[in-house]
Amino acid sequence: MPLLKDNPVAAPFGDRFAHVARIDGGSLLITAGQVAVDDDGAVVAPGDVVAQSERIFEILGGILAAHGATFADVAHVRTFMTNLDDLRGYGSVRDRFFPADPPASTTVEVSRLFLPGAVLEVELTAVIPSGGAASPRTS
Question: Which of 5, 12, 115, 119 is the most buried (most CB within 10 A)?
């Protein structure tokens, strides 16, 4: 696998995300931030972090698949939330997509997002292995 992870320092929360990701080979795939919208561009479940998380990871899964990647190929997740008190709800969804060996991660609270009712935005950086074949992961 082209994504190699190593935690060179003892760090709290090491079981929740990697503190570093080193890329050896492959192609880098960077998504724009995704918010929970339906096919018409309307916000899904305004104010509901769990429902919005579900929709966002559905969208991101489609983007990854379209480029021959899976969530197993994700090196970094960046999340913008309007309320960090919602972290548990978001984490309950996110953990299903990264059940083991989670990627490096950044989560920040922002005052608002560009669509009223949107409570989080997520972007990914993934590495598609050389040859274009994604690493299989069942979840």
Answer: 119
Q: In the 8-state DSSP scheme, what is residue 131?
A: T
CA 50 to chain centre: 14
Identity of the amino acid at 17: F
Query: Which of 60, 90, 80 lies closest to 121 in space, CA to CA?
Result: 80
pLDDT tens, 83-97? 999 999 999 999 999
Domains of the chain in start order, with CATH, are 18-128 (3.30.1330.40)
Tell me how far apart the alpha carbons of residues 116 and 106 are, in angstroms, rounded to a whole number: 23
Provide the token pair at 57: 């990871």
C-alpha distance from residue 104 to each of 5, 6, 40 (Å): 9, 11, 32
d(CA 67, CA 83): 32
